[in-house]
């Protein structure tokens, strides 16, 4: 069993650093195997630290070549060195300069943390603790320094040399074939925001003029020959800059802003100061290679990283427990940006689907943690849906509670008061308290404990008194018995048989919001002329689960008449979920599949062509994992799959004429140029949602239709939708389509990822074998995170029946992959393992199989801290 439990870092143990580093001068001589880094650090004792404390610099896998202090080489007795630390037991009690030379092998760096090479391009990744793999340093975000970086490389191998901040100087080193560039970043920053890039890259650029009249040179760097695929990302940078000025009054603060796309990257992208480095999946787009979803993701992630320039960089985090301070806030900001660029209702529904698919299960399982965790063994395992997505929901609730005006003013104050510092969640909330005079201490509870609150609600209409009262009760599963009630903003309205009841009133509802902040409450609404249907949690105003006794006919009234788009969609989802769960339990529901189909038919008749993107969402049934989350325990994924398949078939059959008519009405004349805008994407989404149901009702006709679409499609969205539909229909047509797709896109790694993913998600017995076979495919590589995520990640996280096979073969496949990956790239191995996060909610046979796979992983000698942490907590 485990011998080494990873040491735990605790929030309560925080103390300021004993030393500060004001300036860093780095000299990096790039070489594939023998890179030399010389760091000159201006160190001084921190007045807030312990006087006379030793200087302990962090390292990870480092080799020290030379060390001197104020220009004198240090006697061996004056320091201790190991790959993981450099210690001066008795450093001078005054400012001094430490010069450290280390040697790195970027080609051998498969962890993709620190300095590494991706397809020959030198790049860095330092969040959360990768800078210590470049040089010995105080690698903690509350140590902020001004950096000057000189980068040198062979000119032919790396004609482009980029650093943080502004370019200062560049030139050739005559007679050596080498050249250099010097970059200076005037803004003090933590080491995790350091970056450099060196390589052969194409550049597309433009100029942006800030609201204060400064010209900024924008550039996106991509692999040679792919410049034409960078235009959309560049445009998204410009729109992000303009939006942040308009919406939050935030302007950019350097002369240049660079984005670099690399193909080997552990995460989505990274907000390094002035030099954002991206997984190329979130930069490269052309109609033939990227789907509408890809375009939307590029827009969102470009915005996200750019917005970090204020929420994360100018104001950074004091320690990693405060991660949500930058991530939750920045997700909220990018969601608002995307909502302004696209349809707000449609975007909100997408946000909530993501939250429910990823964060709710996390919060209900063994990996649950507070939005601000109190302890961690491996910080890289805390870049979670809870920190990001629930973190964003907290910011949104804050805005709902205090109103838009006060929210904007509070944000201004937060940026002004914390600019240039490393802040905490308390600093954030304090800005809003100062602005509004409110006490937010009870609201702060949202950060403190795990678990999704539940709100049980029942409504009573009193016709005589013309009142409608809502009885509310909250519980906090998973939060611990000492947890207090949370502050829950409920945006609400009442709907009558013919539309909203606008005369209804309550003194406890302000601007449509009721604040529910006790265990129990009763809200009475007056002047209610007829028995209403309540529309609660409009726009999903709080990240909670709601148990409302409401019959399906009432929900269908909401689908028809609610003015809140989110709740119209939610009503249809609830009815569909009840139908499927009812069928699986052998219970009857008051509205059957036929009545639901009839309601959908009239909804489509009235609204489909007016808002196709929204209609596509209404037509998409709750996913298998949504249903599993609703059911909550003793889950049998095969039964869920069967119930969902059955409802798709019934709806497809009942709506056939309508669906074919919609497809015709939405089809584009041949030769229409592709546009990724939201309206065009919405039309494609509805056509393809229709195709899905058509194929469920009529597999033969559906296969022909899907195959025809694959051949006629003028863009990747439609081609891939055709292939995804076909993927559910076993047979030769399908296999031929897979083969020709692979041939057509043999030289397009990002498209091949889609091909791997679709096959990994096939809900059939043969899929485990297929995935094992694809792991041997020449285009598959364990060293490329996108490929691992596409094939094994899709299998583990998006194929519930096959991953959870009752014979355990799916768990074994994923466990084998985790173990094979762990030594090379523990972060990706650990991420893959989170697929086991809901194992306790399975029925007993599958639960037992999952547990033994987890135990096998944990018992493997030499396991990384990343995987040990996830396996240990999953079993814990
Ligand atoms: N900070 C990155 C973001 O914008 C995520 C990230 C974390 C990237 C760690 C790399 C490593 O969300
Ligand atoms: Zn982020």
From TrEMBL:
EC number: 3.4.11.2
Matches recorded under InterPro entries: Aminopeptidase_N-like_N, Aminopeptidase_N-like_N_sf, PepN_Ig-like_sf, Peptidase_M1, Peptidase_M1_dom, Peptidase_M1_pepN, Peptidase_M1_pepN_C, Peptidase_M1_pepN_C_sf
Principal EC category: hydrolase
Matches recorded under SUPFAM superfamilies: Leukotriene A4 hydrolase N-terminal domain, Metalloproteases ('zincins'), catalytic domain
Entry-linked Pfam families: DUF3458 (PF11940), DUF3458_C (PF17432), Peptidase_M1 (PF01433), Peptidase_M1_N (PF17900)
Calcium listed as a keyword: no
GO molecular function ontology, one term from the record: aminopeptidase activity
Cofactor(s) for this UniProt protein: Zn(2+)
Domain Peptidase M1 membrane alanine aminopeptidase: 232-445
Recorded superkingdom: Bacteria
Limits of the Peptidase M1 alanyl aminopeptidase C-terminal domain: 553-875
Domain Peptidase M1 alanyl aminopeptidase Ig-like fold stretches: 451-548
Domain (Aminopeptidase N-like N-terminal) ranges: 86-193
Keywords annotated in UniProt: Aminopeptidase, Hydrolase, Metal-binding, Metalloprotease, Protease, Zinc
Catalytic activity from the UniProt record: Release of an N-terminal amino acid, Xaa-|-Yaa- from a peptide, amide or arylamide. Xaa is preferably Ala, but may be most amino acids including Pro (slow action). When a terminal hydrophobic residue is followed by a prolyl residue, the two may be released as an intact Xaa-Pro dipeptide
Similarity remark: Belongs to the peptidase M1 family.
NCBIfam families linked to this entry: pepN_proteo
Name the UniProt record assigns to this protein: Aminopeptidase N
Organism: Methylorubrum suomiense
Taxonomic path: Bacteria, Pseudomonadati, Pseudomonadota, Alphaproteobacteria, Hyphomicrobiales
Gene: pepN
């Amino acid at each position: 069993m485990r011998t080494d439990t990873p040491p735990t870092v605790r929030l309560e143990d925080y103390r300021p650093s004993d030393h500060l580093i004001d300036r860093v001068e780095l000299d990096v001589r790039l070489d594939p195997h023998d890179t030399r880094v010389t760091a000159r650090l201006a160190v001084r004792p921190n007045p807030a630290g312990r006087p006379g404390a030793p200087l302990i610099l962090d390292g990870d896998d480092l080799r020290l070549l030379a060390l001197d202090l104020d220009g004198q080489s240090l006697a061996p007795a004056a320091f201790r060195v190991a790959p993981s630390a450099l210690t001066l037991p008795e450093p001078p009690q005054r400012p001094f300069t430490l010069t450290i030379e280390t040697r790195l092998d970027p080609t051998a760096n498969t962890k993709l943390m620190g300095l590494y090479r991706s397809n020959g391009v030198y790049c860095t990744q330092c969040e959360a603790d990768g800078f210590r793999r470049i040089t010995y340093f105080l690698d903690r975000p509350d140590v902020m320094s001004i950096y000057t970086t000189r980068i040198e490389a062979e000119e032919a191998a790396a004609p482009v040399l980029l650093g943080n901040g502004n370019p200062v100087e560049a030139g050739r080193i005559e007679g050596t074939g080498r050249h250099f560039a010097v970059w200076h970043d005037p803004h003090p920053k933590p080491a995790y925001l350091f970056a450099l890039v060196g390589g052969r890259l194409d550049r597309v650029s433009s100029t942006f003029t800030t609201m204060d009249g400064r010209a900024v040179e924008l550039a996106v760097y991509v692999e040679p020959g792919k410049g034409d695929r960078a235009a959309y990302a560049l445009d998204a940078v410009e729109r992000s800059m303009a939006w942040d000025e308009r919406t939050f009054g935030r302007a950019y603060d350097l002369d240049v802003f660079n984005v670099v796309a690399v193909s080997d990257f552990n995460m989505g992208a990274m907000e390094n100061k002035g030099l954002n480095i991206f997984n190329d999946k979130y930069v490269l787009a052309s109609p033939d290679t990227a789907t509408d979803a890809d375009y939307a993701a590029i827009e969102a992630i470009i915005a996200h990283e750019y917005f970090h320039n204020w929420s994360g960089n100018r104001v950074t985090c004091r320690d990693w427990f405060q991660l949500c301070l930058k991530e939750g806030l920045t997700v909220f900001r990018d969601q608002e940006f995307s909502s302004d660029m696209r349809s707000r209702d449609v975007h909100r529904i997408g946000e909530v689907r993501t939250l429910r698919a990823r964060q709710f299960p996390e919060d209900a399982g063994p990996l649950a943690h507070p939005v601000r965790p109190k302890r961690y063994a491996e910080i890289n395992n805390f870049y979670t849906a809870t920190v990001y997505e629930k973190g964003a929901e907290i910011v949104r609730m804050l805005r709902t509670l205090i109103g838009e005006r006060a929210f904007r003013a509070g944000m201004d104050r937060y940026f002004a008061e914390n600019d240039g510092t490393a802040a905490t969640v308390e600093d954030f909330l304090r800005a809003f308290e100062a602005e509004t005079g409110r006490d937010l201490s009870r609201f702060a509870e949202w950060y403190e404990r795990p678990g999704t609150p539940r709100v049980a609600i029942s409504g009573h209409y009193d016709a005589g008194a013309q009142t409608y009262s809502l009885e509310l009760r909250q519980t906090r599963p998973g939060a611990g018995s000492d947890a207090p009630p949370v502050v829950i903003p409920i945006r609400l309205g009442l709907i009558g048989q013919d539309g909203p009841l606008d005369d209804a009133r309550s003194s406890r509802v302000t601007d449509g919001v009721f604040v529910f902040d006790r265990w129990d409450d009763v809200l009475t609404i007056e002047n209610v002329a007829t028995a209403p249907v309540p529309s609660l949690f409009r726009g999903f105003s709080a990240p909670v689960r709601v148990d409302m006794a409401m019959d399906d006919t009432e929900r269908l009234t909401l689908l028809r008449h609610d003015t809140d788009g989110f709740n119209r969609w939610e009503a249809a989802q609830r009815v569909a979920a009840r139908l499927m769960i009812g069928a699986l339990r052998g219970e009857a529901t008051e509205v059957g599949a036929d009545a639901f189909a009839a309601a959908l038919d009239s909804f489509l008749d009235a609204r489909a062509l007016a808002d196709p993107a929204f209609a596509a969402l209404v037509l998409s049934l709750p996913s298998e994992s949504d249903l599993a989350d609703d059911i909550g325990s003793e889950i049998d994924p095969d039964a869920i799959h069967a119930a969902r398949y059955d409802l798709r078939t019934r709806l497809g059959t009942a709506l056939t004429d309508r669906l074919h008519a919609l497809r015709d009405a939405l089809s584009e004349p041949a030769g229409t140029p592709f546009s990724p805008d939201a309206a065009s994407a919405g039309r494609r989404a509805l056509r393809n949602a229709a195709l899905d149901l058509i194929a469920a009702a009529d597999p033969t006709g559906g296969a022909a239709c899907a195959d025809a679409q694959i051949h006629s499609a003028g863009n990747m969205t439609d081609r891939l939708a055709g292939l995804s539909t076909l993927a559910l229909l076993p047979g030769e047509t399908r296999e031929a389509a897979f083969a020709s797709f692979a041939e057509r896109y043999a030289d397009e790694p990002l498209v091949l990822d889609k091909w791997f993913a679709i096959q990994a998600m096939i809900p059939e017995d043969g899929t485990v074998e297929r995935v094992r076979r694809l792991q041997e495919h020449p285009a598959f590589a364990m060293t490329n995170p996108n490929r691992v995520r596409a094939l094994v990640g899709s299998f583990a996280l998006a194929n519930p029946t096959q991953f959870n096979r009752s014979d355990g073969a799916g768990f074994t496949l994923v466990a084998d992959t985790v173990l094979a990956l762990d030594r090379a790239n523990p972060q990706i191995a650990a991420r893959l393992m989170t697929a086991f996060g809901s194992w306790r909610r399975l029925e007993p046979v599958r639960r037992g199989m999952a547990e033994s796979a987890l135990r096998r992983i944990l018992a493997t000698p030499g396991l990384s801290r990343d995987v040990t942490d996830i396996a240990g907590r999953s079993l814990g």
